[in-house]
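Box 3.1 — From sequence to structure: Protein-methionine-sulfoxide reductase catalytic subunit MsrP
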Amino acid sequence: MAGRWKNDLTHADVTPKAAFLNRRQVMAGAGALAAAGGIGGAAWAKLNAKPSQYSISEEPNSLQDITTYNNFYEFGTDKGDPARHAGALTTDPWSITIDGLVEKPGEYSMEQIMEGVELEERIYRFRCVEAWSMIVPWVGFELADLLNRVGVKPEAKYVAFETLLRPEEMQGQRRQFIDWPYREGLRLDEAMHPLTIMATGLYDEPMPKQNGAPIRLVVPWKYGFKSIKSVVRISLVEEEPHASWNQLIPREYGFYSNVNPERSHPRWSQAKERRVGGGLFAQKIPTLMFNGYEDEVASLYEGMDLINEHF
Ligand code: MTE
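Predicted structure (token representation):
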């Protein structure tokens, strides 16, 4: 499947962290993190993630871009709100309840979840449905590893995810425009795909709070809203689960939401995207089918109408 990449040297192979984290970025990023209350120093937050064959070779966005231009409506709707307000979130202790159609249901602490996990760096394209994009050097592990550890029962067809509900710390949850908690879902084969990761960091540091600390989903071939942050529940289920944006405006946001330049959003085209950090006069770049991961994931959707039915 990833044969095309096997022989290619990726950015992760050839560029040590220090080379793409130039001093200005480090300083700016450190400031951004400090502004959001800092990053956790929890014992499970291991660094030194290994490079991965799944990383792309494009230069990542700066830590500053990735930590100051965010969507995390639990902290407000402005792009700068998460960096301003997410410092209030307590991320240690943290646990994830894994339930539904699994052999070993339970409430797992972060320490238990991270036990024996080998973290990898995954440099992925990240494409928001709002037509902006970034390149993010995530750190994480395959969701399939976690699901295999808890044992998926044969009747399970989908995976449902939930973000923390804690309006005392998440000020955006005091307004009821989304039916909190934020929820998302994947079909089981999408969840088990090796590109699908649970990310616990970026730029080889623990996950900044505004990006979904301490642990979030990343599904690089889907629009960014599928990549749910600060996950506290993972449920294996038989029916297609509730997903927040799909439920709120089903005509605009489908359950699948695979990146697709040929299917316009009812209010804007998805054919091109603006790379964040490219400057005011930068040309928009063409959006790629499945966000450039077509070779890896197209087979999951064989025979499905991705424009009218399963968008
Ligand atoms: N997860 C939660 N819980 N709440 C959110 O508002 N926003 C989504 C997604 N996950 C969101 C979320 C959207 S719209 C995008 S584009 C990405 O997170 C943004 O991730 P980033 O801020 O790390 O770039």
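Summary of the box: The first strand starts at residue 95 and ends at 100.
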